[in-house]
Amino acid sequence: MITLDATQKVDSATRRALSDLSLSVAKCKKIVVVTGAGISCSRGIPDFRSSDGLYALVKEKYPDVVLKGRDLFDASLFRDPTSTAVFYTFIAQLKQSIDAASPGPTHDFLRLLDSKKKLLRSYTQNIDGFEARAGLLSSASHEAKSDGKGKSKLRTKQVRNVQLHGDIHRVRCRSCSAEYPCTPEHISIFMEGLPPDCPECLGRAEARIARSARTIKVGSLRPAIVLYDEPHPLGDDIGTIQSADLSRKPDMLIIMGTSLKVHGLKKLVKEFAKTVHSAGPSSSSPSKAKKWSGKVVFVNRTPPAAEWEGIIDYHVVGETDAWVGKVIEDWKKMRPSDWEIQQTLVATDGDVSMNGNFKVVISPKAMAKDTKKKPRKDEENVPPHSADMVMSTPDVTSHPAKTVFTPPLSPSKRRQGNSHYSLESSPSKRRTLPPVKKGLEDGARGLLFTKPIDVAEMGLFDDMNDMSMQSPPKARPLRAGRTRRVAA
C-alpha cells in the first residue's frame, strides 16, 4: 500500500503519483465508488466515530442514558422504551441538520463521473440522501421502485447509487412495512421520543370496526434506515446489482470517507477489489492490460486497518473534497477534449433567449436534409392542380409550359404518380386488353360499305321466290317395275 499525504508539503514523487491517479480516473470507464459518512463532514453532517461525531453528541444530550455508539443504531434498541425514545429524538435532530445542508464537491464528483459515462455504480453507507439530491437515482427513492409484477422491487438497471443503510427521508411501518416520505409532522412526533401511527394500519383497523369485525393492531412508523443486525428490505435486489457489476469487470475502485468497519461492507469491498485487480496489469501478462486500470484507491483522514494490506493500492490522506478537486484540475489539464461541450441554441420565432451576441447557424447536414424533397403522405387520390388543367372552351387558349432540361434521375429517385391506381403502378393492376382481330378483306369491306348489293344477281334467295303458303308437292312412291325418268 502506497500512502500519499496531500495535507503536507508534496514532493515530486507524491505529486507524480497523485497525477497518475487523476489520469486513471480520466481514462477508466467502469469505476465503482464506495463512500461513507466522511464525504458529508464538510457539509456540517458529523460522522459516527470521530471525537465530534454523532455518538459523542448523543452522550452530551443524554448523559444519564448509558448507550454505546453501536447500541444507538442496533436493532435491539426497540426492546427498551427508553433507548427507543432516545433513538427517535436523535434521528429527528439528524434529519433537521441534513435538511439544512446541501450536497458537497464529492457528491458533485459522483454526478460528474456518471455524466462522463465513467461511473459503473456508487455504493454508500450514508443515509442523508445527498447523492440523490446531486442527481443520482438512488435505490431508496420512489422513482427507483419497480412497478412490475416480478420479484424485483427496484429498477436495477436505472439505479446509479445504492444506499446500503437506507434513507432518513423515508419512514416505514414496523408491522405492515408500508413506506411513506418523512414529513415535518413525523419529525415533530419523533422529537418527543414517540413514533407516529401507520396510516395504512389505521385505515384497515377503522374499516374492520365499521363492519363490526375484530380490530387489528396499529403499527408504528420508524425511520427507514437499516440498523445493525437487521436485514435490508432490498437485500435481494442489492445482491443482484452487485453481481451484475462484478460481471461487468470494473477497472477502478475508489473508497472515500469510510473506516471499513462494517462486516457487510468489508465483504463487498474485497470482492470488488479482487475483480478490479484482475482487470489491471499483472506480472504474468503486463502487456495485455492498460497500466492505468486495476487500481484500488482509499481516500480518508485515517489509515485503513492492517487487514487491507495487499487489497488497497493507494491511501490518499486528507479530505475527500480536496482530493476530488485535485483530480478534476488534473483531468482538465491532461485531457481537455473531455471537457469540450457543444452547445445548441434553440430559437423561438427567430429570437434566442440568451445574453450575448449569438446567432443560429444551420449545420451542413441539416441543410442537406432540408433540401431533399419529402414525399407527401396525402398525395394519394389528389385531383390535379388547376394550372395543369386545360378547358375545352374555344375562348381559352392553352400556353405550353417552357421546357426545362433536367438530367435523368435514377430509378430510385424518379417521381411516382399521384395515384397508385395508374396502370404503371404494379403489374397486377394493369389492364390486359384482348388482341385486335384481323380486319376484313378489301372486297368484303367494299360489299359492306360501298357497293350496293343486288339480291337477284347474287341469287341468294332463289328458293324463296314462291312466297305462297302451299306446301311443296309430296314425292310419289314408285311402283314395282317402274323407273323414274330424269331429264337430261
Fold and architecture overview:
This protein has 488 residues and is an alpha/beta fold. Among the domains are: 1-42 and 101-165 and 232-339, TPP-binding domain (Rossmann fold); 46-99 and 166-225, SIR2/SIRT2 'Small Domain'. Helix content is 31%, strand content 10%. It is built from 14 helices and ten strands. The protein has helices spanning 12-27, 54-61, 69-72, 81-100, 105-115, 130-134, 184-191, 199-210, 235-247, 263-279, 320-334, 364-371, 442-449, 455-458; strands at residues 2-5, 31-35, 119-124, 161-163, 166-173, 179-181, 221-225, 252-256, 295-300, 314-317. The strands form two sheets. It has a seven-stranded parallel sheet, sandwiched between helices. Strand 8, helix 10 and strand 9 (295-300) form a beta-alpha-beta unit. The longest helix is centred in the first third of the chain and has 20 residues, at 81-100. The termini are far apart. Mean pLDDT is 77; it is low at 363-367 and 392-398. Keywords: Metal-binding, Mitochondrion, NAD, Transferase, Zinc. The active site is at 165 (proton acceptor). One of its GO terms (molecular function) is metal ion binding. It is found in: Mitochondrion. Residues 476-488 have a biased composition (Basic residues).
What is the level-2 CATH architecture name of the domain at 1-42 and 101-165 and 232-339?
A: 3-Layer(aba) Sandwich
Structural class per helix/strand content? alpha/beta
Task: Using the coordinates above, name the CATH class of the domain at 1-42 and 101-165 and 232-339.
Answer: Alpha Beta
Gyration radius over CA: 47 Å
Report the sheet-strand fraction.
5-15%
Mind telling me the CATH superfamily name of the domain at 1-42 and 101-165 and 232-339?
Answer: TPP-binding domain
- Unreliable sequence segments: 363-367, 392-398
Structure summary, number of beta strands: 10
CATH topology grouping of the domain at 1-42 and 101-165 and 232-339: Rossmann fold
Alpha carbon gap, first and last residue: 148 Å
Name the strands of the widest sheet in spatial order. 1-10-9-8-2-3-4
Helicity range of the residues? 25-40%
Strand count, sense and barrel status of the largest sheet are: 7 strands, parallel
Overall pLDDT confidence: 77
Judging from the principal axes of the Cα atoms, what is the shape? globular
Active site: 165
Main location: mitochondrion
Region (Disordered): 365-440, 464-488
GO molecular function: histone deacetylase activity, NAD-dependent; metal ion binding; NAD+ binding
